[in-house]
Amino acid sequence: MKSFNIRSICLGGNDVEEVFDVECDNMHCIATVTSNAARLMDSVGYLCQLVSNPNTGARLRVSMDMIWDKPVDDAVAELDPPVTLQFCYEHFCGIYHVNPADNFPASSLKNFLNHDNIDFFGFEMNYKVQYLRRAHDLVVKNWFDIPSEARLSNPERFGDKVDLSLQEMVSMDFSREVFKGY
């Protein structure tokens, strides 16, 4: 099976932030990697401004991921915070390193995750939403698990496959392989 053509170039950075130009086949985005909570707050604030007028009916669809440094189950999610948070919208991706572990940016995320006009999409979303609620009293108001939505929208294709992984869905849709590190 053919792999994706992925390329990444560091555009610059400093002690708390690096910016990358990332291309996967013909898809392009700018990824900002930071451990600075103020920079995360700036990015979250920018996304909230895009839907600041509720009368327009505009909605943001943001992909969300949280990555732990070990396999995640209820016990791990109960005790250990994720090592990275990732929010992507269109051609922008913000990656926040939770370092040190007690530096989880709960106050920066509260209004963002609970925004009426922002929908969060991802894989294994239940673990992530439950972790945020239990560990930080954060509510993700509008969230969708991609495999669950795929099964609902196309039951003939996805059938009774309960736990489709990102790799399985990419393989089914693109006949290509993708590898995601933990």
Keywords:
alpha/beta, single chain, 7 helices, two-stranded parallel ribbon, eight-stranded mixed β-sheet, 31% strand, 182 residues, Nucleotidyltransferase, domain 5
Q: Which residues form runs of ≥5 with pLDDT under 50?
A: none
The largest sheet is:
8 strands, mixed
- CATH top level class name: Alpha Beta
- Please tell me how large the radius of gyration is: 17 Å
Q: Can you walk me through this structure?
A:
The protein has 182 residues and is an alpha/beta fold. It has a single domain, classed as Ribonuclease H-like superfamily/Ribonuclease H (Nucleotidyltransferase, domain 5, 2-Layer Sandwich). The chain contains seven helices and ten strands. Strands 2-3-4-7-6-5-8-9 form an eight-stranded mixed β-sheet. The chain is globular and about 50 Å long. The model has no long low-confidence stretch (mean pLDDT 77).
Summarize the structure.
The protein has 182 residues and is an alpha/beta fold. The chain has 7 helices and 10 strands. The mean pLDDT is 77.
Q: Which helices and strands, and how do they pair?
A:
Blueprint: E1 2-3, E2 6-13, E3 17-24, E4 27-34, H1 37-49, E5 60-67, H2 74-79, E6 84-89, E7 92-97, H3 106-113, E8 118-122, H4 125-136, E9 143-145, H5 146-153, H6 155-158, H7 166-174, E10 176-177
Protein name: 3'-5' exonuclease domain-containing protein
InterPro entries: RNaseH-like_sf, RNaseH_sf
